[in-house]
Amino acid sequence: MHSPIIKPYPITRSLIPEIQEHPIHFVSAAITPEACFYLRNHFAYPRITGQSFVLSVGGEVQKPRTFQYEELLRMPSKELTVPLECAGNNRELFRPRVFGEQWGAGAISQGVWRGVALRDLLRLTGLQASAKEVVFEGHDSGRRPDLEGEFVFARSLPLGKAMHPDTLIAYALNGEPIPYKHGYPFRLIVPQWYAMASVKWLRSITVIRNHFSGPFQDIDYMYYPEKDSDTRKTPVTTIQVNSIIQQPLNRSVLDKGMHLIYGLAWTGTGWIKHVEISTDGGENWRPAVVQPASQNAYSWTFWNYTWLADQKGEYTMMSRATDSFGFVQPAAAKWNRKGYGYNAYSVVHVQVE
């Protein structure tokens, strides 16, 4: 008899709206399989109708236009390997604890996205001199517990980020049309920013002359450093340098001998330059083997370290990454009231017998 094929499955955090975590400790592929790709929704899934295949561009533009799905498919395109990380990834690790989806380490996945550069669409419509931000609305909508009325998921980008050549209106993931649950037929992809910026089920693009202040812009996805005050709040934008020990798992029992410690590192600024490993709780650090810099400017990086466990006992393993801009993963994450941007050392406790 053949042995059964054992596959990892996503971890369900919520059913309505559907929220699922990538089983990151058991998937070592450069490209996350669709079945394991994490899901973060704020509302129930939208209905896909004929209108879903039309994308309007208006506001502070010279020639407002409506783009058809087939029209975008015929335009010059580009393909980018981009990890998407939820700003709340690893929220469960903040101390003191914070409210919100209690993500573990799996609110991140990586895919190959194909689409049209947003700036190509904006050049076709032309920008008014007054243009300041670009607002993106999805087809998904619903109610929030903190506000009256119904809201569409909408976010904005400053004009500079919107005009970056790699900010995409994507229509394909891993060589196929974007799956329905990941934003079919159009999804904004914003490399190097946390994934709240990559609006799904995109229906409209509006250039505005002022600051957009929707609830998913100025209430959610803000860093609030004070527990009981909104003072010093700042917007969540660029992904912070980070790493994860995928194996061994936390609280594993290991035999004496050689063990491969391995994992991932990623950043929103530049590329991963170093990963260091400690097996004694941070007293000493040694360089891990980091895969050569990828030709894909934004992709995550694999690393590994071979450890000789020659003494019985309990050990605390840690990983920390450094990127090409000199940003170093800190020993402790900056606490904030909504639990965004956790990037403290990855910590794993093991026992050797």
TrEMBL record:
Ranges of residues in domain Oxidoreductase molybdopterin-binding: 42-214
Q: Which InterPro entries match?
A: Ig_E-set (IPR014756), MoCF_OxRdtse_dimer (IPR005066), Mopterin_OxRdtase_euk (IPR008335), OxRdtase_Mopterin-bd_dom (IPR000572), OxRdtase_Mopterin-bd_sf (IPR036374)
> Any signal peptide, and if so, which residues?
none
Q: Which domain of life is it from?
A: Bacteria
Q: Which GO terms describe its molecular function?
A: heme binding; molybdenum ion binding; molybdopterin cofactor binding; sulfite oxidase activity
From its record, what is one biological process in GO terms? sulfur compound metabolic process
Q: What UniProt keywords are attached to this protein's entry? A: Metal-binding, Molybdenum, Oxidoreductase
Where along the sequence do coiled-coil regions lie?
Answer: none
Cofactor(s) needed by this chain: Mo-molybdopterin
- Domain Moybdenum cofactor oxidoreductase dimerisation: residue ranges: 236-352
**Name the UniProt record assigns to this protein:** Sulfite oxidase
